[in-house]
Amino acid sequence: MKTGYYELLGVSETATDADLKRAYRKKALQLHPDKNPDDIEGATQRFALVRAAYEVLSDPQERSWYDSHKNQILRDDDDYGTEDEAIPSIPSISVEELMRYFNPALYTIIDDSLSGFYNVTERLFERLAAEEIRHARSQGLKEYELFKDDAPNVNVIDSSMLKFPRFGNSASDYTTQVRRFYTEWSSFQTVKSFAWKDSYRYSSAPDRRTKRLMEKENKKIRDSARKEYNETVRSYVQFIKKRDPRVKSGISEFEKQRKKKHQEELERQVKEQRNPRITRNG
After folding, report:
1. pTM for this prediction
2. pLDDT digits over 215-243, tens only?
3. Which Pfam families does this UniProt record tie to the protein (predicted)?
4. pLDDT tens-digit profile of 117-176?
C-alpha cells in the first residue's frame, strides 16, 4: 500500500484548507534543495509526491473522490489478484485497477517520454478503447465491426477507422484533436456486459420462476457494475483534463480565434450593409 495523501502532508483527515496550506508550505521548505544538498534528487522526488497530494486534497471535488476510493487508489500492483472475483473471458481492466491511475504522482513528468504524462495516459486510453471494440465484437454489435481500435499497430491507423479519439501527445492540436478527445470521452458509455459479475448460474435453476429471479438479480448486479465503470472512466477523464497542459493554452487560443472570426464576420456584415451593390453584384 502506497503512502496516503494525508500522511504525506502530515495532517489528519479532518484537516481544513488552512491546515493543508500550512502543512504544504512546511513540507516545501523541508524538501527544498538548499536544505538537502546531499540528496537533491531524493528530496525533489519526495516533494513531487507531496505536491501531488496537496493538489488533490486542496480541491474539494478531488478530495471527496479520494476519500471515497482511497484504498483502491493507493493499492500496489502486488495487491491485485487477491480477491476471489470472476475473470471475464475477454481481458478487461477492473475499476480497482483503473483507480491506480488517479494518482497525481504518476504524472509529474510532463513530456512524451515512456514514463511521461502523455505516454502513460495514451497507453491507458488505448487499452480502454481496444477493450470496448473486443467486447462489442464478441456481442455481435455490427456498428463496431469495422473499427480497428484494438489493432496492435493502432498508431498508424487512420483516425476514420477508430471509434474512439486518441489522447495524443504534447504536439497534438487542441482544436482538431484534444478538444474532440475530451468532448467524446466525457460522455463515455461502455458496451461491456459485465456478465462475469453474475452471482447465479441459470443452469442450476430448478424451475422457470427461480430462473427469472436469478436473471433479475444478475441484471441488477450487471447494471451496478456498468454504472460504476462508466462513472470511473468519466471521472478519470476529468482528472486528466485538469492536469493536461494542452487544455488551458488550447482553450485560450481557441477563444482568441473564435472572437477573431466573430469580429471579422461582423465587419463583413457592416461592409455589405454600407455597399449593397457590391453584395448584389458579387
Report:
1. 0.77
2. 999 999 999 999 999 999 999 999 999 99
3. DnaJ, ZUO1-like_ZHD
4. 999 999 999 999 999 999 999 999 999 999 999 998 998 999 999 999 999 999 999 999
Cell numbers representing residue 239 in the block: 482528472
Domain extent listing, the chain? 1-74, 76-243, 247-282
> For the chain, how many residues are written?
282
Q: What contacts 54, CB < 8 A, 6 or more positions away?
A: 9, 20, 24
CA dist 190 to 1, 141, 194, 224, 225, Å?
29, 13, 10, 13, 11
Grid coordinates representing 247 are 487544455
C-alpha to C-alpha distance for 90 and 59, rounded to whole angstroms: 37
Architecture of domain 1-74: Orthogonal Bundle (1.10)
- Least Cα distance to 122 among 176, 184, 166, 175 occurs for 166
